[in-house]
Task: structure prediction
Amino acid sequence: MTATEGVKMTTESLSPATSVEAVADQVRTAAGPLHIVGGGTHMMCKSSNPALSLAALTGITLYEPGAMTMVARAGTPINEINDALAGEGQRLAFEPADWRGLLGTQGESTIGGVAAANISGPRRIQVGACRDHMIGVEFVDGTGRILKNGGRVMKNVTGYDLVKLMCGSWGTLGVLTELSFKVAAIPETEVTLVREGISDDAAVARLCEAMGTPYDLSGSAHLAISGNTKTCVRIEGLAASVSYRRDALLEEVCAGFEVLEGAASSELWNSIRDVSAFAQSDGAVWRASLKPTDAPALTAKMTEAGVNFDAIYDWSGGLVWLLVHSDQSAAASLIRNTVDSLKGHATLIRSAPSLQDVPRFQPQHSILRNIEAGLRSKFDPRGILNQGFMD
Result:
């Protein structure tokens, strides 16, 4: 199975929209459902509906390094944003992932796609998710109205927080056209403490203990791949502070860990962020969110059932990536049922031929389902935006 098996790109596209007015017109005049597409790098679903592409709606419209804020149109590539920020010694703190290798897609990841999917990397344990850095949005709802919420400065706190609502809605409530967000300074240095050979449950316990210290970790992950394990803790900041926290962690929690610095540390966390270890392997890929201390219970159930899998525990176990090599249908039921019993949720990020009828997202309980239906009826009364994507 290839990485994109079960994923079908749209066969019909509307004219690329180059302005918010053009987007609004295309939504307003649509005769039926539309498939909202940014850079095409996060394609996880089939769709034969016409594609409304935001790839031509590009450009950084405001950047104030002193205020640490930026405004960009939704189709602006993440690489363009990263380059502009790096020129001022700044970055996107929430560390957006590049899933092209994992999903077998091409194109360029865009700020609109990242926000629509709320893509957040390992640094979420320290700085929060993508949605926590968004301070304003402009979007087109399902009737073709152009709506704005939030502002271009961090002091704006008035009105309903539609910014948080739109982040992670995968284009089902509105078509993002412009975003305002906070940025952060690039730290002076980073180091990673690494140790191999720790079991999954012991590693998660160790990571949770490290997170409970005052040493401000920016990464906390455990990899269990092909029978080998690697436990990793990252700290960033001013050189003197990093040195002190490194030594304290080695003495108090991370005895026996080795130290990675500079490029070696960055490369390791880039691979964890992008789930690179699963990119060249066949199998379904799941992304489970649950309480960190419950993560070993999920994988223990899979082991007991004889499921052949690899795992990456990010966020100290709060996020578990699973690559399932065989028995896909049985594993899907086991993962969903176990995660549900642990009050978490699991998303099928990369499918397999036997999982065509398995929902991508965790089936919701009736109360949440009713709330979601109510929101959709307000923002997309015709039901034309990424129809069925999150069902």
Summary: The chain has twelve helices and 17 strands. The CA atoms of residues 135 and 181 lie 5 Å apart. Residues 1-11 have pLDDT under 50 and may be disordered. The longest strand covers residues 228-237.
